[in-house]
Specification:
The structure holds 2 protein chains of 2 kinds. By secondary structure, chain A is mainly beta. Chain A has helices at residues 25-32, 249-258, 265-279, 346-350, 372-376; strands at 2-8, 33-39, 47-51, 55-60, 67-71, 81-83, 93-96, 100-104, 108-113, 123-126, 140-141, 144-146, 153-155, 162-167, 171-176, 181-185, 200-205, 214-219, 223-228, 233-238, 286-293, 301-306, 310-315, 320-324, 339-344, 353-360, 364-371. In chain A, the strands form 7 sheets. A 4-stranded antiparallel sheet of chain A has the order 2-1-27-26. By secondary structure, chain B is an alpha+beta fold. In chain B, helix 1 (2-11) packs antiparallel against helix 6 and helix 4 (76-94) runs antiparallel to helix 5. The termini of chain B are far apart. The chains are: A mainly beta, B alpha+beta. Chain A: InterPro entries: RCC1/BLIP-II, RCC1_domain-containing, Reg_chr_condens.
Chain lengths: 377, 411
């Protein structure tokens, strides 16, 4: 399995690019914005990837020193891709935030402050032997879940039967064993999916999905996504950069302004308004109830991940689709344009690669893929 | 144009070592690293594109923090980071022979920092925007063909005679003493129109406010505008426009703005314009009567309300005393006492609990039967008038023509 990355790279968390001798504008942007997938080096064997804004954490499940970090590594080491200075043997899962690295071991969970030089975790909990057999599914832990801000641990009622949990910028989305979806947190951008903008302190079921069984959930900065048992994709929340895959007014205005470079500041914005009003299109800024998104005709979605303002989905046929905010190349289409419609990342098709997994950092995207011939055997 | 950069450069610390970048632990070290990179570039040699890119990274990250959680709870540190991003971006735009468009972009960037950020380095964004504005004024061409809507002193014969019922008129009083205002109006919380108390405002005599004057003083500045007939409507929204764009689109109707046949109303409402544009602040004065309150002068919120004919503020109440000073144009205002709140059917939601559900000039008698029984006072506020709206007093406002009012919220 090979991993590829694209998007925000100001801390070399996707890849280290060679600095060219002459200072020209294209080279500096090229280092920071990787807009086409680049293969991650040194990624052999079974691995998982987690990403924060400034770092990437790679978990090598078969190795001794199993967690390595790339990106902003102030207190870890000066190397661009270094092992964490703690014992990570046997680590099964990890979560990385801007300030903390959380590691899940068979017998314990540890939360390390990446900004301190402490040799002990800032928080930890033991896992009782009975739960050791089941796979830990961070951020879920026995009895609840953990976040990267204090309080670290939050309890969850066992009657919810939590199967997986995604933490967004200001909300949480939970999938139960029965396939139901619960949300809580801030709601001002419609990200809870209950039809309004009010916050919820306690998990509340997303009634619009009642009766349909969901198999996977994901959360972005202000949006939520889930996959139905049949491979359908449902989205809700903020659509300011097209991250829901629904028509976005902001994107249309921006593209109109780009097309009228001669117009002065005043005329540009005024005529952009006129253009949009004549067409009388419906734009979605906030989608407060789940909406079905047709990612690709007659394709089932296998897995989905959200960055802060973009979304990436893998189909069962091995294609990667991305949409939403593209300013840092995180959509992988060789541009920095944002999109409000799902678009296939041609790179993988061109390289005969079958995409099997996707993990998004806030402003970048990492994909796992295998050669198509490998699949056939 | 190199002269412009030297003026801006002079407002900055002389070198990197003296450029402060102090933040609480709320700001992750990775973000501080980006800020340090931008600072390094400010004093070092690199490409314009690279400077702008780094500034944009800082802006994009802090923008996300500003939009997370409720605005009230956004940590001030993130607003400071946002302002630093604006500073680095504006500096990058103006460094190498900027075009007029780039200077306008830099002004807009400073305004975004003033609107959404928090003051840094002695409010440096304000200092820089003033330098950039003078530069634009030097480059601007003269335009004579604007309609002149001036502030005039109150005429003896009001053109809106007959609009209000005499027996329901808000009482008027000319230049009352502090004691008599206190005793007759403030303590008993009784509305009154004070005449003659702002005649000395430069806005009404030395620099009479007009559309032309506002353009010259603030034309290129970015301000928040409310679009839609009233804030309780579904299609109400807020946008950012320069004062020039706002005037052209919504005041002078140079552009036909029709959505389904209706002209959208734009209102520069409830905005602390005078913090953003100090020249306008010089044209007004805080009413002396505010000293009768318990709060400090620094705690008084001064808002600008500038819009075309037909702007409506639905019936609502505010938690502070209000002096509403009329400078340009006129407004119809109706007042209801807080004692009659039950007849005014406030919204139940917490967000709109201070707002009535009733459309004052077209009430739905079936849904709101008690409304017609609620007693009220009404007036037409003219240039030079100041309306005292006691705390929690319900008020409804509709502009009768192009109007500019200034409100003072005090306690």
């Amino acid at each position: 399995m090979r991993w590829f990355g694209f998007g925000f790279n100001a801390f070399a968390q996707v890849c280290v690019q060679e600095k060219s001798d002459k200072e020209d504008s294209s080279s500096s942007a090229g280092e920071v914005k990787v807009n086409v997938p680049i293969e991650l080096k040194n990624h052999v064997g079974r691995s998982k990837i987690r990403a924060s804004w400034s770092r990437r954490a790679s978990l090598f499940l078969d190795e001794e020193m199993s967690v390595r970090l790339a990106g902003f590594c102030a207190f870890i080491s000066n190397e661009s891709f270094s092992p964490v200075m703690v014992d990570t043997r046997g680590c099964r899962d990890a979560i990385i935030s801007e300030t903390h690295l959380t590691l899940a071991f068979p017998d314990r969970i540890e939360c390390w402050d990446l900004q301190s030089k402490e040799k002990v975790p800032s928080w930890s909990m033991e896992i009782l032997t009975q739960s050791q057999n089941s796979d830990v599914n961070l951020p879920l832990v026995p009895g609840g879940y953990i976040s990267s801000k204090t309080p670290i641990f939050h309890s969850l009622s066992s009657h919810l039967q939590a199967k997986s949990l995604a933490l967004g910028g200001e909300h949480a989305i939970l999938l139960t064993a029965a396939g139901a979806v619960y949300t809580w947190g801030q709601g001002s951008h419609g990200e809870l999916g209950h039809g309004g903008l009010i916050p919820e302190e306690e998990p509340r079921t997303v009634e619009a999905l009642w009766g349909m069984s969901m198999r996977s959930v994901a959360a972005g900065g202000w949006h939520s996504v889930c996959i139905g048992d049949g491979g359908d994709l449902y989205v809700w929340g903020w659509n300011e950069s097209g991250q829901l895959g629904l028509p976005s007014r902001g994107l249309r205005k921006a593209s109109q302004q780009k097309n009228e470079p001669q117009a002065g500041e005043l005329c540009g914005s005024v005529s952009a308004c006129l253009g949009e009003e004549r067409h009388e299109e419906v734009y979605i800024s906030i989608q407060a109830f789940p909406a079905l998104v047709d990612v690709s005709p007659s394709c089932e979605i296998r897995t989905v991940s959200c960055g802060s303002r973009h979304t990436a989905a893998v189909t069962t046929t091995g294609c990667l689709y991305t949409w939403g905010w593209g300013e840092y190349g995180q959509l992988g289409h060789q541009t920095t344009t944002s999109l409000d419609e799902p678009k296939c990342v041609e790179f993988f098709r061109n390289e005969s690669l079958h995409v099997v997994d996707v993990v998004c950092g806030p402003w970048n995207t990492f994909t796992a893929a295998v050669k198509k011939e490998v699949l056939a055997t | 144009m190199a002269f412009l950069w030297s003026k801006i450069s002079a407002t900055l610390p002389p070198n990197e070592e003296q450029f402060p970048l102090q933040f609480s632990e709320k700001v992750a070290l990775s973000v501080v690293e980006m800020l340090k990179r931008a600072r390094l570039q400010l004093y070092g040699e690199t490409t314009r594109a690279s400077r702008i890119l780094n500034a944009q990274i800082i802006l994009d990250y802090s923008w996300e923090r500003l939009n997370t959680g409720t605005w009230r709870h956004v940590d001030k540190e993130w607003r400071r980071v946002y302002s630093y991003g604006c500073l680095f971006k504006a500096a990058a735009l103006c460094r190498e022979n900027p075009s007029e468009e780039e200077i306008r972009q830099a002004i807009r960037t400073c305004d975004m920092g003033l609107l959404m950020g928090a003051a840094i380095m002695g409010n440096i964004l304000q200092v820089i925007v003033c330098i950039l504005q003078s530069e634009i004024r030097k480059l601007a061409e003269e335009e004579d063909n604007h309609e002149n809507i001036e502030a005039k002193k109150r005429k003896i014969a009001s053109p809106h005679v007959g609009l209000i019922k005499e027996e329901l008129a808000v009482p008027r009083i000319k230049c009352p003493s502090l004691e008599s205002f206190n005793a007759n109006h403030l303590l008993p919380l009784k509305p009154v129109i004070l005449e003659g108390i702002i005649d000395h405002w430069p806005a009404l005599n030395k620099h009479p406010w007009s559309v032309e004057y506002l353009r010259s003083v603030a034309g290129c500045r970015t301000v928040p505008v409310e679009v839609g007939s009233r804030y309780t409507d579904e299609d109400w929204s807020q946008t950012l426009l320069t004062v020039n764009e706002f005037i052209d689109k919504y005041i002078l109707n140079k552009v036909q703005v029709s959505e389904n046949g209706y002209k959208a109303v734009g209102y520069l409402a409830q905005h602390q314009l005078f913090d953003q544009i100090p020249e306008l602040r010089e044209d007004i004065r805080i009413p002396d009567y505010c000293c009768l309150g318990e709060g400090d002068e620094d705690d008084i919120t001064v808002n600008a309300w500038f819009g075309p004919k037909g702007t409506v503020s639905p019936l609502h109440q505010d938690p502070q005393q209000n002096f509403l000073a009329q400078v340009v144009g006129s407004k119809y205002i109706r007042l209801y006492s807080p004692e009659d709140t039950e007849k005014l059917y406030p919204h139940e939601s917490q967000l709109l609990h201070n707002t009535s559900q009733v459309e004052v000039e077209n009430p739905d008698a079936e849904r709101f039967p008690e409304f017609v029984k609620a007693p009220y006072l009404e007036c037409v506020l003219q240039p030079g008038d100041v309306l005292f709206i006691p705390v929690k007093h319900w008020h409804y406002v509709r502009s009768l023509e192009v109007s500019f009012s200034v409100s003072f919220w005090w306690s």
